[in-house]
Design brief:
- Helices cover 36% and strands 16% of the residues.
- It is of the alpha/beta class and 312 residues long.
- The chain has two domains: 112 residues, NAD(P)-binding Rossmann-like Domain (Rossmann fold); 176 residues, NAD(P)-binding Rossmann-like Domain (Rossmann fold, 3-Layer(aba) Sandwich).
- Strands 8-7-6-9-10-11-12 form a seven-stranded parallel sheet. It has a five-stranded parallel sheet with strand order 2-1-3-4-5, with helices on both faces.
- α1 packs parallel to α12 and α8 runs parallel beside α9.
- It binds 2-keto-D-gluconic acid.
- The site of 2-keto-D-gluconic acid has 11 residues, from loops.
């Protein structure tokens, strides 16, 4: 008999096909009465397949007494209550590493997009403004100083690429990492004061919530730019909107927001902002590799083998 699993949100069709081949899949996002449905079927469900955005809400966890594993399609697991999973004996897997390159790519893309105003130039050409208006001269990435908040696996890939732009790379994190050619700042505010670009790529945890505060934005200063490809929770969003509108910082490029898919209206009208709808890992190659890990972690679990990429 195929094990029963609860799929929380849609995934790539190739991943869904594979899940449906191996399991009886209950599609949570299609349910009209999720609580009623889970009251009837929840006891048979042994696994959750979810993603970094949807995680596993407490009411779902409570409705699944036989839950053994949560296999998540994403590296960030802030939407899953890990201590609670440990207490319940539920294993959790994520999809690290396979998205490092795609994440580094979008980060560099957002940075160039912001400093060279690529979205605005594109819009101007489409609006037939070329020839009728003059375009301002802009700053460039080359030679600038970047501070990376969270020099993990993705942060290191970003650092490598930014070195190709002859940028000076510094980083802040809980610990200094040995044998790296980058300056370490134990104090985020000191780093923000020194850099031209602050790139946020640390995980969303209770410790990092609001870490990019009004004070950090003030330290970044009127020539400084903020890039966030991690989680919206790391940045004090109202403080960011204010800092962008009153010139406390120069600009921001954002792939993530506090309350996705809601983006503050004020940001949408700002010329010194580039916005992206949480697309960091959204390439066919990367999403295929992520989906593969979701499937292989579930298969490993049901075969009684160690998980490939366990969180717990
Ligand atoms: C995905 C992500 O967009 O890996 C993560 O943590 O945020 C992204 O890769 C997400 O998991 C899909 O919702």
């Amino acid at each position: 008999m195929k094990p029963e699993i609860l799929q929380i949100a849609p995934m790539m069709s190739s991943v869904e096909e594979e899940l449906n081949r191996a399991y009886v899949v209950h599609e949570y996002w299609k349910l009209d009465d999720p609580a009623g449905y889970l009251a009837d079927t929840g006891a048979n469900i042994r696994a959750i397949a979810t993603d970094g955005h949807h995680g596993a809400k407490p009411e779902i966890m409570d409705a699944l007494p036989s839950l053994e594993i949560i296999s998540s399609y994403g590296v960030g697991y802030d939407a899953i209550n890990i201590p609670d999973c440990k207490e319940r004996g539920v294993r959790v897997s994520n999809t690290p590493d396979v998205l490092n390159d795609a994440m580094a790519e979008i980060t560099v893309g957002l940075m160039i997009g912001l400093c060279r105003r690529i979205p605005q130039l594109d819009a101007a050409v489409r609006a037939n403004e070329w020839g009728r208006t003059s375009f301002p001269l802009l700053s460039e990435l080359t030679g600038a100083h970047v501070g990376i908040l969270g020099l993990g696996r993705i942060g290191k890939e970003i650092a490598l690429r930014l070195q190709a732009f002859k940028m000076k790379v510094s980083y802040h994190g809980r610990n200094k990492q040995e044998y790296l050619p980058y300056d370490y700042y134990g104090d985020l505010e000191a780093m923000a004061r020194d850099v031209d670009w602050l790139v946020v790529v640390a995980p969303g945890t209770p410790e990092t919530k609001g870490i990019v505060s009004k004070q950090i934005l003030e330290a970044l200063g009127p020539e400084g730019n903020l890039v966030n490809v991690a989680r919206g929770t790391l940045v004090d969003e109202p403080a960011l909107v204010e800092a962008l509108s009153n010139g406390t910082i120069a600009g921001a490029a954002l792939d993530v927001f506090e309350d996705e898919p809601t983006v503050p209206d004020a940001l949408k009208s700002m010329e010194n902002v580039v916005l992206s709808p949480h697309q960091g890992s959204a390439t066919r190659k990367t999403r295929t590799a992520m989906g593969d890990l979701v499937i292989r972690n579930l298969a490993a679990h049901f075969a009684g083998n160690p998980l490939l990429t366990p969180v717990t």
